[in-house]
Amino acid sequence: MNSNILQQGHYYGTIEKKVQTKGVILTLSNYPLHAQLPDHFHENSYLCYVQHGSYQEQSVSGKLVCEPEDIVFHPAGIVHRNTFPHAPAACFNIEIDAGWLRNFDTAPFALTRISKLKSAALKLLIAKMQGEFRQYNHWSHLMIEGLTLECMAIFQREKAAHSGVPQWLQQVREILHDDTQAASLSQLAAITQISPYHIVREFKKAYGMNIGEYVNQLKIARACALLKDTDLNLAQIALDCDFSDQSHFGRIFKRTMGFTPLQYRKATE
Questions:
Q1: Which positions fall inside the HTH araC/xylS-type domain (predicted)?
Q2: 71: pLDDT confidence band, cut at 50, 70 and 90?
């Protein structure tokens, strides 16, 4: 099979913007409806955050359907091809230079196949990185590299913690990612047939935070996407992200992100 290699910083599609530091290349790439990309692989490992739209990806590991807000890890050298049968798409790519990583005696995620990563913390870090990407300034390269290392640290920590996680607890996490409104303990207990007390204790042990904190991170990550990609007002975003009201949304957002929703929207314009 003939496959094209894409060198550092190169992607198919239309490149809307690219920012490069010594160790990290951020790229926003756009793809039209019905686009079909040939078999190819990348020189460096990278994370793809689906900003909007959807696509299908075929590799030796099988077929992935990638939808808005999905985070997909691509190891260097893994052949894949992409199609966009249902909608145009925009992808925010975080490419990691292997040589730069050797300075830190680490590797870019301990994965050998294309995989979706489900992590509320990773989504929040990517949202912060998008702010630096949009409003790049003299200090942004330090922020971007620091956030990238933090992404890898969180992934490695979560991977180690999850190695012994039982299937029912993985199911709880999947439910939260699919629908934050399904976060009541009574609902989770009914679905998993596990006692609420046991769910609370084991969730915090495995994921380093309680269910409420985890759900808030997912809500804020969703709010970041809406602030960046839509013109919805804050009251509507608060409602769409399941906050009790706009004031509650603003407090949680500021506490989590370090700035207000309007400041984030302005930074990502």
A1: 170-267
A2: very high
